[in-house]
Amino acid sequence: MVEDDIARDYRVFGREARGRSQVYEEISAHVPGDPGLREFLTALPRPKQQPNLLYGAVQYLYGPIRDWPSFRETVLGHEDEVRAVMMRRRTQTNEAARCALLLPALAALPEPLALIEVGASAGLCLLPDRYGYDYPGGRIAGSPMLSCRANAATPVPDRVPEIIWRAGLDLNPLDITDESDCAWLHALIWPGEEYRHDILRQALDIARQDPPRVVRGDLRTDLATLAAEAPSDATLVVFHTAVLAYLHDDEPGREAFAEAVASTGAVWLANESPRVIPGVEAPGPRPEMAPLLVQDGRPLAWTDGHGTWIEWL
After folding, report:
1. pTM over cut 0.85
2. What topology is assigned to 96-312 in CATH?
3. Shortest CA distance to 120 belongs to which of 214, 209, 56?
4. What is the pLDDT of residues 16-70, one digit of tens each?
5. What share of the chain is helix, strand, coil (3-state, %, to 5)?
6. CA distances from 235 to 140, 165, 184 (A)
7. Mean local confidence (pLDDT), 189-195
8. What is the domain partition of the chain in residue ranges?
9. DSSP H or E segment with residue 224
10. Vertex 106, ends 247 and 246: CA angle to 5°?
11. Peptide bond just before 144 cis, omega within 30 deg
12. Strand partners, 271
């Protein structure tokens, strides 16, 4: 049943928010049992029922969410306005700090590199060579400075790799020069993690100096065309973070994407829940809700979804 799916989604999101956003944890616990919110969500298409999309729409329209009572009042008092944003927008969190999770794997590949990010949003994760990094025992100068806790097994790099070509693929690319698109990116940041606003502002400033190219297209059908543009003398890397889950358990779609990546001959870096990466099994106990960094089907590390820690296997 649709309502069962809604309840599951919000309870799972509440577990993801635990310890990070008390506001979102609280709201996610209340939504499944609230008749008004369930009726509002049930009337939406299944892909538009996502917690992050609802919460982002409210913050985009009305500013930071404070608590459950004010959130409920806002949604039920402005259903048409909230619904309109949810129908127009997608969940497109563009967290530059995720580059700190990708960098140890990227730095180990033969250079130079050519990058394709699928589900690229505004393309901020296409710029890992333009940021600074602060790992335990290793620091690379730059701004914004992305701090990432790493265990002793993590191959912390001492420099960024050479990247000679980069492009993104997204169903709805966001424009880093458009105020409303940038406001939407800020609206997707969780209450309780306000420090991420500074990282986003700095990453947007960096990106505007030399905007990454993000092409409108579907990761399942348009990847090969874009990959054909990459220079032949570079190691092609196709990567993504928190994208495959939005195919909504469409296993043929995920398999089609895996086949598309294989057809390009690229190195494939996925940072996702292990359940959504075709052909991959979780290597032992999974830290609570943690994504798994996988290279060509081989698990490399457990990670934090917002880039704050990495545990190399």
Report:
1. yes
2. Rossmann fold (3.40.50)
3. 214
4. 999 999 999 999 999 999 999 999 999 999 989 999 999 999 999 999 999 999 9
5. 45, 20, 40
6. 23, 10, 33
7. 95
8. 2-88, 96-312
9. helix 223-227
10. 10
11. yes
12. 241, 293
